[in-house]
Amino acid sequence: VGSDLKAIRGRLLSFVSEPAGPGDRSSYCFIEDGIVVVRDGRIDAVGEASELAPALPPGTAVDHHPDGLIVPGFIDTHIHFPQTQVIASYGAQLLEWLNKYTFVEEQRFADAGHAERNAVFFMDELLRNGTTTAVVYATVHPGSVEAFFAESERRGTGMIAGKVMMDRNAPPGLRDTAQSGYDESRTLIERWHGKGRQRYAVTPRFAITSTEEQLEAAGALNRENPGVYMQTHLSENLREIETVRQLFPDARHYTDVYDRYGLLGERSLFGHCIHLDDDEVRRLSDSKSVAVFCPTSNLFIGSGLFDLKRLSGGADPVRVSLATDVGGGTSYSMLRTAAEGYKVLQLGGQNLPALSAFHMMTRGNALALGMGGSIGTIEPGCFADLVVLDARATPAMAHRMETIEGDLDEELFVLMTLGDDRAVRETYVQGRASK
Ligand code: GUN
Ligand code: ZN
Asked: Does residue 280 sit in the same domain as residue 396?
């Protein structure tokens, strides 16, 4: 049986380092008429179409996107798959939003059929938006994780997901126990972690919904299963932080609650990280933990403004990634997310150059997951997970682009500021058109 060969041609953009500032030409590789040769789902070669195309075996299928901008598939490092019908819920901040909308909706995932239908919708929606890898919260029900991973496997995507662990301060239908949460997580790890492209994330929801016993169980899962990820929420909302203080009176601060149970580390992702004190920033930095910036969510739930400069640019730099946080977040699109990220930073007197935003959505988020060289860049050996973008996708974008002559930086800024799913022409998963 011969190997499966195809090629994708267009304008190629991939990063090689973190952009030092606007227009940092050394941070990326751009080929105006480039081609990606795909063999068995992985990138076999990348280069000038004029050099590589003539060397392809006769009859090799070539998808040509003459003015499409081909970048690595987007990576979303924090999203809730059971919140597709929570998104756009009116008028509440975090704790009320959880009780009034989220915990009601998530109970429906006890039904396997409901979970399966939502997994299909969710994967469709991610791919329509150019997202090819995501770090995903399921619900407390193990079946929700099964449904999600099964769907990801069918599509050929590489996803990271986990069963939410929550054994208090939630409705009975949405609670596990320290023991059942441990057992069910362990079974899911055995079934799914490292099965093809799927990876597991131990997922204690946040300190408010886990007893000390459960956080200890989460720490044990982390320790006992090298290579699994850990995801939770940290320091999102002021009332949340006050509640954590009351629930854990012995902890030095919110971060310390997780630290005590061995939940910090280079495979640990902490959603939000808005209201941290200096000691917390130091602990996240020392432990190489990742702070996840979720701008549309932070604005929509009214939580506060992420301070990128303080976290990533200080004496104790914290690794940072970017994410949608649907359904607290309001868009599945990483382009929209970058646009809101830019505005959040503007409000803090900071900037987000287009190159930095596109780096974050691709190579930066891949590095935050320890997956550099596998996803997030267009280079030999990587999975051929790609997205084809069109900076003239809408009348407003096309009109704006009339004033831009071949400046990549400006084109990227138009894409992130005005773009969304309409700017995604195609999404490739392992070289297969999957939008
Ligand atoms: N904190 C605990 N659970 C959640 C959630 O589902 N969404 C957000 N945004 N914050 C949380
Ligand atoms: Zn979240």
From this structure: no
The alpha carbon of 394 and the centre of ligand 2 are apart by a number of angstroms equal to 31
- Residue 207: closest CA among 167, 153, 172: 167
Cα-based torsion angle of the residue sequence 258, 260, 265, 267 in order, rounded to the nearest 10 degrees? -50
Query: Which pLDDT value is given to residue 3?
Result: 79
Considering only CA atoms, give the Rg of the chain: 21
Place of tokens 């596990």: 176
**Atom from ligand 1 closest to the CA of residue 325:** 9
> pLDDT tens digit string along 322-346?
999 999 999 999 999 999 999 999 9
Residues 138 and 52 in one domain: no
Residue ranges of the alpha helices (H) in 201-252? 212-224, 238-247
Residue from 101, 103, 140, 205 whose mutation best tests the ligand 1 pocket (most atoms within 8 A of CB): 205
Q: Which residues pair with 9 in a beta bridge?
A: 35, 64
Q: What is the pLDDT of residues 364-404, one digit of tens each?
A: 999 999 999 999 999 999 999 999 999 999 999 999 999 99
Q: Are residues 208 and 137 in the same domain?
A: yes
- The protein residue whose alpha carbon is closest to atom 7 in ligand 1 is 328
Cβ neighbours of residue 58 closer than 8 Å, sequence gap 6 or more:
none
- Identify the pLDDT of residue 2: 59
Residue 89: domain span: 74-332
Which regions of the chain are under pLDDT 70? Answer: 1-2
Q: Which residues lie with the beta carbon below 6 Å from any ligand 1 atom?
A: 80, 94, 98, 102, 205-206, 233, 236, 297, 301, 325, 328
* Own/partner long-range contacts of 169-175 (Cβ < 8 Å, ≥24 apart): 169/208, 169/209, 170/103, 170/140, 170/209, 171/103, 171/104, 171/107, 173/107, 173/110, 174/103, 174/106, 174/107, 174/139, 174/140, 175/140
pLDDT for residue 86: 98
Inside any domain, residue 349:
no
Residue 315 buriedness (CB in 10 A; 0-12 / 13-18 / 19+): exposed
Domain final position from 301, 317, 332: 332
CA of 78 to the centre of ligand 2 (A): 6
Tell me the sheet residues that pair with 6.
38, 61
Q: HSE (CB half, 13 Å, CA atoms) of 218? A: 36
- The ligand that comes nearest to the alpha carbon of residue 87 is 1
419, 388 in Cβ contact below 8 A?
A: no
Q: How far apart are CA 186 and CA 183, in angstroms?
A: 5
Q: Tell whether the torsion through CA atoms of 266, 267, 272 and 273 is positive or negative.
A: negative
* 167 and 176 Cβ atoms separated by less than 8 Å: yes
